[in-house]
Automatic annotation (TrEMBL):
One of its GO terms (molecular function) is acetyl-CoA C-acyltransferase activity. InterPro entries: Thiolase, Thiolase-like, Thiolase_C_2. This is Thiolase. It comes from the Bacteria. Residues 237-379 form the Thiolase C-terminal domain. SUPFAM superfamilies: Thiolase-like (SSF53901).
C-alpha cells in the first residue's frame, strides 16, 4: 500500500476467544474482550497499554465504542471500517499508518460473533437491491454459485476440483485441536452432500460458528522487546470492485488481482516467496479464484492446479493450514482468523500442522460477494 513502510510494524500478540458453539448468554462483545485479553497476555501487554482499537462486526453497530466501554480504556484512535470479511486486513494497514504517523503506539484489532448460537435471530439484515432482491436469491451462496458456474463454463473446472479444496481444508482441520470439524471428509462425500446452490453443495460452503479473535500491533522497535518473536507487516494492499454480484465486472476475476499486486510490491516479494497461504474460503470457489488472482497459477487454471493435492498437509502449496472457513470455523466474518493463523505459522507455534521453515505468510481477506479484497504479507525476523 502506497505510503506505508515495509516492516515498520509487527503483530506481537494473537488469540482466539472460545470457538464453535459458545456458552449460553455470551455476547459478541464478551468474545471480543476475551480474545483481546488473551492476545495481550500473548505478548505481555495490558489493557492500559492499548491506545487504539479497530473492529468491525455484524452484530454491533459501534463495536469500537462498545469495546472501549467494556474494557475500560480510553484509546487515542479508533477505526470501525466495515468491508465485510476483509475488514481486518484493512484494519491492519490502517493501524500501521496510524502507528507510523504517531497517532498511537499499541493497536488492537478485534472481532466477535455468536451467529451459531443466535441463529436466524442474529442474522444480518440485507439491503434491498432492486436488481437482485425481487428474484429472491439465496445469498450469499447463490452469488458464489454464479462465479463457480461461470468458471466451470469458461475453463472446464469440475465439481471434483472444488471438492479437493474442501478435502484439503478438512485434512488441515484434523491437525488443529481448535477446529470445529473432527471427522474425515472424502471427495465423494462432498459431491454427494446436499446441494445448496448449484454447483455448490453444503460441503462447498463455510461453517456457521461462534467465535472471536484479536491481534495486537505495535512498532517494530517496541515489538523487539515483547514476549513473542515479532511478525512483521511486509506488505498490504486493498481493492474494492463492486457491492452486488450483478454488478461484478467479471465473475471469474476479483479485485484480489490489484490488492495482491500492491501487497507484493510493498513487500518486495513475489508469489514464489510465500511459504504459507491463508486464503478466505467462505466457499470452495473462492480458494480457486484467489489462488489465480494472487498469482499462484494462471487465470482459469485453479481447478486443475489443485487437483494433485498440493494444498493438503505435506503438499507443495500449504494453504489454509488451520482448516479454513470450511472446516476450522467461520463466525460471520473470517478475515481476522487468517491473520492469527499466519502469525502463528511464522512463530512456529502450530504443532502438527506447522509448515517447516515458514518465514513468509500471505493472508487474504474477502468481503461481501467477491466485492472487497485485502491482502497482507507477513514475515519473520529473517525477512527484515
Amino acid at each position: 500500500m502506497k505510503g506505508l513502510k515495509r516492516g515498520s510494524c509487527a503483530i506481537v500478540g494473537v488469540a482466539e476467544s472460545d470457538l464453535g458453539k459458545v456458552a449460553e448468554g455470551l455476547s459478541p462483545l464478551d468474545l471480543m474482550a476475551q480474545a483481546v485479553v488473551r492476545a495481550l497476555d500473548d505478548c505481555g501487554l495490558k489493557t492500559s497499554d492499548v491506545d487504539a482499537l479497530f473492529s468491525a462486526a455484524t452484530q454491533s453497530r459501534m463495536p469500537t465504542l462498545a469495546l472501549t466501554e467494556y474494557l475500560g480504556i480510553r484509546p487515542n484512535y479508533g477505526d470501525s471500517t466495515y468491508l465485510g470479511g476483509s475488514s481486518f486486513m484493512t484494519h491492519l494497514a490502517h493501524a500501521q499508518a496510524a502507528i507510523e504517523a504517531g497517532l498511537c503506539e499499541v493497536a488492537v484489532i478485534a472481532y466477535g460473533s455468536t451467529l451459531r448460537t443466535a441463529g436466524r435471530t442474529g442474522a444480518v439484515v440485507r439491503d434491498f437491491n432492486p436488481y437482485e432482491s425481487p428474484y429472491k436469491p439465496f445469498l450469499p451462496s447463490s452469488a458464489y454459485a454464479l462465479a463457480a458456474s461461470r468458471h466451470m463454463h469458461l475453463y472446464g473446472t469440475r465439481r471434483e476440483h472444488l471438492a479437493e479444496v474442501a478435502v484439503a481444508a478438512r485434512l488441515w482441520a484434523l491437525l488443529n485441536p481448535a477446529a470445529w470439524e473432527k471427522e474425515p471428509l472424502t471427495a465423494e462425500q462432498v459431491l454427494g452432500s446436499r446441494m445448496v446452490s448449484y454447483p455448490l453443495s453444503v460441503r462447498d460452503c463455510c461453517l456457521v460458528t461462534d467465535g472471536g479473535g484479536a491481534v495486537v500491533v505495535t512498532s517494530a522497535a517496541r515489538a523487539r522487546h515483547l514476549r513473542k518473536p515479532p511478525v512483521y507487516v511486509l506488505g498490504c494492499g486493498e481493492s474494492q470492485a463492486h457491492q452486488t454480484i450483478s454488478n461484478m465486472p467479471d465473475l471469474t476475476v476479483t479485485a484480489a488481482r490489484e490488492s495482491g499486486a500492491a501487497a507484493y510490491a510493498m513487500a518486495g516479494l513475489k508469489p514464489a516467496d510465500v511459504d504459507v497461504r491463508e486464503i478466505y474460503d467462505a466457499f470452495t470457489i473462492t480458494t480457486l479464484l484467489f489462488l489465480e488472482d494472487l498469482g499462484f497459477c494462471g487465470k482459469g487454471e485453479g481447478g486443475f492446479f489443485v487437483a494433485d493435492g498440493k494444498l493438503r498437509p505435506g503438499g507443495t502449496l500449504p494453504t489454509n493450514t488451520n482448516g479454513g472457513g470450511l472446516s476450522y470455523g467461520h463466525p460471520g466474518m473470517y478475515g481476522l482468523f487468517l491473520l492469527i493463523e499466519a502469525a502463528r505459522q511464522i512463530r512456529g507455534e502450530c504443532g502438527e500442522r506447522q509448515v517447516a521453515n515458514c518465514e513468509v505468510a500471505l493472508a487474504h481477506g474477502n468481503g461481501g460477494v467477491l466485492a472487497s479484497q485485502s491482502t497482507v504479507i507477513l514475515g519473520g525476523t529473517a525477512t527484515v
